[in-house]
Structures are given as structure tokens and as C-alpha cells.
Amino acid sequence: MKKGFLAFLIGLLLITGNITKAQVPALKVSDNKRYLSTKDGKPFFWLGDTGWLLFSKLTREEVETYLEDRRQKGFNVIQAMGLHTLNVVNIYGDSALVGGNIAKPKVTKGLDVADNEAYDFWDHVDFVIRTAEKKGIYIGFVPLWGGNVKDKKVTPERANIYATFLANRYKKYSNIIWLNGGDIQGSTGKKVWDVFGKTIRAIDKNHLITYHPRGRTSSSEWFHKDTWLDFNMVQSGHRTYAQDTSAKEKWHYGEDNWRYIQADYQLKPTKPVIDGEPSYEGIPYGLHDVNQPRWTDADVRRYGYWSVFAGAFGYTYGQNSVMQMHRPKYNDTSFGPQEYWYEGMAKPGSFQMKHLKALLLSKPFFERIPDQSLVIDNGQKYEYVVATHGKNYAFLYTYTGRTFKVNMGKIAGKTVKAQWFDPRTGNYQAIGDIENSGIKTFDAPLEPKDGNDWVLVLESK
């Protein structure tokens, strides 16, 4: 590490300070087992961002920049990898492990604040987590990316040592959420994933744990009944309807990520569920062919509203350049990023996600249920309208802005106030007072087309 960095190191450590008091409230599964809440019972809407390589590819100054940007845009969870590979080296040239052995985290001794030669990979991870904590952001911590297990580089015995190290080191932080797995089927190296889940749970009883699966699957397929799994996570993935052609896929839902949520919502025992990785803004359809069209802000909005209205407790957004922290002079990129991470942070979808969060938190949170009986004439694929309601409100989302019919009387009151909510801006357009009975037809603003999405908001008078 360069000596010139010492002054900045000491300054930021003085700002962030030691962890002596929780800066974010501890989380738990809500009493109805459908959502997350703080320990004192307040609703927690997970608005996540995928910053997978945050720990290894950003400097301390850049960590501050990234997390502050996300805080201002309403994000409260950042999903990040501990170890992308076993030979990972961070931006300062510090290795995470001794000789690529997961059972030997490379930890230096010394007073790290005063001696920057002692500032190691794990101190940098500490800094990221501490900085996030000060900003009210949780870290969805992936201990190990799945490819390392698939390649048989990790034994259950070594996994136990590493998981013990992580759990003991990070159980003191207030803002950890453990994401076991890492883009992989739970059946691939299942003994290792079981070790991670059970070991972390035995040591760290204060933080939630889930499993991040491969695309087009859910954690529930392998771990739903495991006691270490607090909630299910879906990766609905990056393929289009046309690309989702494998007859072997159990979860053969195409882009309909609401179907993954719907399937997990019906499982017993009841556990919350979230889409932790839908299509990223700016990534090619299907990932690998950079000549394919790119997913847009309209697409990430669609995945968000579809999944949340289908019963998810939150949503994770992603952007191609940001998720891999693509930067100048680095050639280790994937999926054809078209800008650097600091430019990708300003893509329109990242500004729009806060409106979903604000809408859901504007009404009684825990009473909300998905209810497709609200929609009389539903369509297929992009024409699908997804509906949810509480006792005195209902939300119905249309991606195309098409005309659709609503079965009234599902919420209280003889009359309801009707409005259109714009997912791009968070603004409302008044419709008027509507009799709360029979079947009513609603026509969204502007001409119907993909991306002319609106939320019909009905409220009891």
C-alpha cells in the first residue's frame, strides 16, 4: 500500500470511528412471516443494489462515493462478494487468503489506524461495512462465489474454518445480511453450502441468512425447510422469453419473475421471498452476446413492480457496469459494459427505484397481500397486470399502460379515490372518486406500448 495514503486512512477512520453503537436497526422476519421488519416492529422495504465487487475493486474514496450515491437514491442494501475467486486481490494489492487457501484468511497484526502497512484485505472489507453502516445501509454479504465450489476448490472442512472466521469477525456489526451461495444451484456442492449456513447460524444468531441461487431458480428448491434459511431469494435472471427455451428448467417462467415469487409465496412453512437478481440495466439480453439489445430502465421497473406486487418483501436492482465496478485499465470485465462504474451509477433506473419503495411504505405495510382476483381480463407476458392490496388500498401495475378491468369491492368503503402513479417520477395523476362495486374499466395515460407503465392506486374514502 502506498505511504501517501496514510493521511486519508487515518482521517476516514476518525470519521467512521469504532463500532460501539449500532447505526442501523437489527432486522427480523415480520410476525406474519411475509416481510422483514426492524426488531422494534417497523417495516423494512429492502431496496438493494448489486455491487458484487465492491470489496475488491474500489478505493476507500470510491467506496464513500458509491455508498453515498446509493444512500441518496434510497438504496438500503448492497449485495457484495467476500471472495469472487480464491486468489482475489483488492485495489491496494492485498490478498484475501494465504496461498489461495480459503481456510487461511490473510490477516495482518498491528495497529491498523497508525500503520498502513498493516491495513489488509479484511480491514478494507471492515471499512466498507462500517461506512455503509454509518449511512444506514446493510451489506448483503456473499462469503464465496459459487464457481469456486463448482470447480471443487473448497472442501466442507475448509468452508467451516472460513465461515467461522467470517461469522466471528462480522457478528458485531449491525448491518450484515448473509447471502450464502453465489449464483449457483444449491445441489452443486450442497455439503459446502450446508456448512456455510449452519456454521454462520451457530455463531451469529443476530443476522438474517438466505441463499443466492443461479439464474431461473430459487433458494427454496434446496433449502426452504432448513432452519438457517430465514427467507428465500430468487434469481429470475437475464434471459428473454425467447431465450428461455430449456425444457429441463423446473422454473420455466421466462421473464415472468412474478411467477417465482408466487410459487415461493405458497410454500410451507411460510417464509419471505425476494427477487435478488433480475435483469440488470445495461446488460445484454441473455448476458453473453454483447450484440444483443440491452435491458433498460423500463425493464428493471417492470421486474420490480411485478415481483413486489406478487408478494415479495423488496427488490434488488442492478446495473451492468456498477455490479462489476468496471474501471479504466482493467480488462477483467464481463458482459460488455459500455461505461465505467461511476458513469453507470447515473443510469435512469437507479433514480426510479426509490419510487417503488416510497409507494409501498406509504400504506400499511404488513397487511398487504397479492390478489390477482382484482384483475378481470388479464393478459400474457408484457400485457400482464399484477395486483396487490391492503384493507383500504389497492395497487395494480400495468407495464404497457393498456386498458384493463378491475373487480371492485376488494377494499373497504362504498367509494374509492383513484389515481395513476408514475413509476418514472413518483408523481400522481388524479382520476377521481369511483363507486367501489362491480367491474370498472381503467385506461392509463398516454398510448399503450412497452415501458408506458403505470400503477393504478385505489384508496378507501
TrEMBL record:
Residues 1-22 form the signal peptide. It comes from the Bacteria. Transmembrane segments: none annotated. The keyword Signal applies. Keywords: Hydrolase, Signal. Residues 30-367 form the Apiosidase-like catalytic domain. GO terms for molecular function: hydrolase activity. Coiled coil: none annotated. Residues 369-459 form the Putative collagen-binding domain. InterPro entries: Apiosidase-like_cat_dom (IPR025277), Collagen-bd_put (IPR024749), GH (IPR017853). This is Glycoside hydrolase family 140 protein. It comes from Flectobacillus rivi.
